## 1
Amino acid sequence: MKWKKTFPGIVLTCFLLIFLASCAWSPGHPDYTNESMDFGAVRSVAVLPFMNLSSDDQAGERVRDAFMGMLLATEAIYVLPPGEVERGISRVGIRIPQTPTMEEVTKLKGVLEVDAVITGVLREYGVVRSGSAEANLVSLSLQMLETQTGSTVWAASSTKGGISLTDRLLGSGGRPMNDVTIQVIDDLLDELFD
């Protein structure tokens, strides 16, 4: 008879454990901001090609283009056009533009006349699946290097999308990739201008 009284509690506990196990937990990445940097002095930036760790070969360029457009739309910083950035990379002779050295960054200052350079790593871009549920996921890390010394003055990461509890229960396909990409970029821009 006693088990009948405790049975609802056991069911509730099991449900909560399953719910917590099914939720995607991300510890987040610590952000970095150089407190001695005067970000108000940054008037122009060059966004270098992003390192693409995803399985989609074109994803890095798509996300970089979206980031450049949204950064330019803030009207807080002038963003050099991609052609100018490529010209600067070529003139400086940067072998791996996704991961420039401090010396290469300082040389870009003379060639492109920018105050900072932004580099990025696209860690995830695509569909994730769990059972019958699937959803889009984007994970992006950015860093800003000031061109005077080539040192990192800001870094942040964001991951958006993924399979939610609603996706698991209803089998929906999650948010469109464009929406998830915009969410990630908005999150990073909020971090940058915070």
## 2
Amino acid sequence: MKVVLYPSYFSDVITLSFAYSAQTIIWEGHGNYVKQTYRNRCYIAGANGRLALNVPVVHTGKGFSIPYKEVQIDYSEPWADNHLKSIHSAYNSSPFYQYYQDDLEKLFSEIPELLYHWNLKTFDFLIRNMSLELNFEETTAFKNDALANNLIKAKGKPLYSVDHYIQVFREKYGFLQPLCGLDLLFNLGPSSIAYLKSQNKRLRHS
């Protein structure tokens, strides 16, 4: 089975659940860049509730569309350091954060120029540490895929949901979703892959 996805910033748990059983993921990067999506945003569970981490991008001016693959990251502000600090603050007390901390800091020390490539690296970080083996292709032209379009949206109520798992600050805020894959990894560690397997079966029949 092949699944079309847009590379997103530390893909959320719902997207990872769909990706779990895909024999091949086809990355879509030819369509125009769209604001307020998971292309440059992810959510973590912070001390004050769900917290958005946004990657700033270089804007080309009003009314001008640019392919997703060509969007450049804006380095005029220290967003990477801020994101690392926020992630550390949120997950330092989680069961597995310290186990992956060094690899995460290394990832943030080698950020490419293009958002598309950075998102591929964050996805690789997640699946590698979750021991999830997948094959990949890239589209050669824009592929307007309904599932990919639904999963990349960061605004509005999600069309899908996942079962509860242990989270930091759960006693204060209840179960938060959708959150990025870092939340799953830091809370469940090696058990993340078993969780994704269970969610994939449920989402496929929802």
## 3
Amino acid sequence: MGAEDELLEAVHESHADALYRYVVRRTGDEEEARDVVQETLLRAWRHPEVLERSEESVRAWLFTVARNLVVDHLRSARRTREHATGHLPEREEHDRTQAVLDSWLVADALVSLSPDHRAVVVGAYYGGRSVAELATELGVPTGTVKSRLHYGLRALRLALQEKGVTS
């Protein structure tokens, strides 16, 4: 740790609490006060020549910088136009109309499949089950599940095309 860092740490130890209390009294906002104190100490770090002055001079400089930051913030457009609120705004929700219509089309097309094909397609795509799991569940060989899945998807594609859905 260099001499400047030690000096800045000593300045922080000596003045940060007093600066914080001063800014809280000026702003009434603890969060803002922390930000102002941090910015004040950052400016002191950027101007190490200030830290070499007498203790009273450093303190006066820090409080002047803090006061100016508070005044700048109070005058800022953000402060005059933005207001804190206790509740979050409603989240934007995307229009799900098309998704609902698509799901109706698929559900209607699934009804047109044979029960065996429908069971395999629904189990695989909506249930997330593997071919082996479906074979065990339906009591048929895995080759039969694969065949039913292939022909079921083919029939589903044709049913959707009949309803005007293009790929």
## 4
Amino acid sequence: MKDAAPSEHPGAAPRAVAIDLRRLAELGMVTHEGGRSPVAEDFRIIKRPLLRNLRAEDGSPRPHANLIIVCSALPGEGKTYCAINLALSIAMERDTTVLLVDADVARPSMPGVLGLGEHAGLMDILLDQRLTLSDVILKTNVPALSILPAGRSNRQATELLASRDMSELLSEIANRYADRIVVFDSPPLLLTTEAGVLAAQMGQVVLVVEAESTTQAALREALRQIESCKHIHLVYNKTRALPASARHGYDR
């Protein structure tokens, strides 16, 4: 699964798309033109420990630490909102590129938030050996940000995400470019098995917890499912103690 020249496969996606940045700004999300808004400052704080964890104390890269999955216990806690904002915030870093992966393959919501159409993506690569990453990764109008869509739905999504092909794809994504950070928008942990399978292969996990909604039981079970992960970060989302723009979360 090499990041090779574009294929002529009929399912291959267009290689460039335009994110609706005006709509993101209206949703109170991070944009390069948004300045020092409260939500931008929040995600500057959130991303800093994630970036620090990319390297060990001796300066050597930590294996797969640049693979970051954003998940939640249940739907509606704001994981897609957080994944997109995190990716956009990291894309502002110097000498860094970001690949945002829609791994919520059963119910992909990133296209609606970003104003994109349907494109081939992650599932298509796993289902069709003729496709390469270059066929399905979308360049965007945010210079340092690319997107890997979810692609077609499949009943064997869990098995595909747990397959050797997926492990090889993750290694390819993690290792091909030294400056690449990959942010995955995951399915909810307690509704699907795909999220736990994905999290087990990630270097870092961001678990989104909805203020005054996520129960202790749900949080404990979600943490149990990702307990094998060494680096777990909690994001307390939609809290009333923050400004309205900072606590707003897209309902996924």
